[in-house]
């Protein structure tokens, strides 16, 4: 399993800031933020599955345009995996004919360009031996994280989350866990905002990582532009012994 980071920023701007999206091999996306737009049309057409952590714009921004761009080049629908709550939000507020066409009905309901597949918390989807499992998260809208398991090794991705004991209970059960990608959206000076918006700041990250019982490589995602250096320094000062690193665009993990 090859995992490539298409976007990992908490905002946009410049050549290297792309919002959350992860490409698994050539055919699976975890979230569909602005990083997806850097793929070629041929690469976009190969994507068969999109797993959404939640419905916020920075995680779904490229999905409507992806389907519009390559829907007629494909011989089967793009499958969007998400919780019932996220699917209902997408139906009501994105693919509603007012913001964007409903591609579950285009070109016709029997052969659409897109289809939804409900994913329950803790459920695992097996795609040719690649196992993707929904993990708990705590955000302002219904949200999940994901475990990506090749059979040999796993990567856990928190998605957007505030403090979440249930996440750590699930992560600590992953015997072959090799990498952990966890968000830290704000610096410590904005701890109150982090709490209100159900994100993490470095001091909160320290509290959360105290629950971690696995020896893993830790990568930080969703850093806000303009606060990157400050936030990473605060993380280093707080949990330096764990040596967390900043996730990078186009970083590749082999599982």
Automatic annotation (TrEMBL):
Superkingdom classification of source: Bacteria
Pfam family, one: Lactamase_B_2
GO biological process: cAMP catabolic process; negative regulation of glucose mediated signaling pathway
Metallo-beta-lactamase domain location: 18-189
GO molecular function: 3',5'-cyclic-AMP phosphodiesterase activity; 3',5'-cyclic-GMP phosphodiesterase activity
Entry-linked Gene3D superfamilies: Ribonuclease Z/Hydroxyacylglutathione hydrolase-like (3.60.15.10)
CDD domains with a match to the protein in the record: class_II_PDE_MBL-fold
Protein name per UniProt: Ribonuclease BN (tRNA processing enzyme)
